[in-house]
Amino acid sequence: MNTATFYIVAPDSPQASPEGFEEYILFLIRHFVQQGARIYLNAQDKQEAEAWDDLLWQQPPDQFLPHHLIGEGPRSGTPVEIGYSKLKPSWNRQLVINLAKDTTNFAGTFTQVIDFVPCDEKAKQIARERYKIYRQSGYQLQTIDIKHP
């Protein structure tokens, strides 16, 4: 069964700051890579995708996560592929971590979706729209409140 998990970012959580959110995303990527998942990290745009690529290259050697931008890297890919909404992910990805704050959704494309409900009211409303699309597409939905580091 396809699942979509929405992480709700509380305004008073460390993840409400850009740095705290980045750290949480890195934590999630490591967690899913350790479980053997092949991840598609969907950024807002090309600039954000390149920033995530740079950030992953800057990780300490003992925490390195093999990754590539769409169109680069080995033929079979790495555990983490980075792109943005206007690009089509590789065929061999099961899980998407959606960082885009628009109406982009991956219903029917991935078996597992990780998405976020940010603090900003406008972005929160758009996240609710994505949630409805997943529900209508038959995804099993869950929400998780982010309240801790």
TrEMBL record:
<dbReference type="Pfam" id="PF04364">
    <property type="entry name" value="DNA_pol3_chi"/>
</dbReference>
<dbReference type="GO" id="GO:0003887">
    <property type="term" value="F:DNA-directed DNA polymerase activity"/>
</dbReference>
<dbReference type="InterPro" id="IPR036768">
    <property type="entry name" value="PolIII_chi_sf"/>
</dbReference>
<dbReference type="GO" id="GO:0006260">
    <property type="term" value="P:DNA replication"/>
</dbReference>
<dbReference type="InterPro" id="IPR007459">
    <property type="entry name" value="DNA_pol3_chi"/>
</dbReference>
<protein>
    <submittedName>
        <fullName>DNA polymerase III subunit chi</fullName>
    </submittedName>
</protein>
<dbReference type="GO" id="GO:0032298">
    <property type="term" value="P:positive regulation of DNA-templated DNA replication initiation"/>
</dbReference>
<dbReference type="GO" id="GO:0003677">
    <property type="term" value="F:DNA binding"/>
</dbReference>
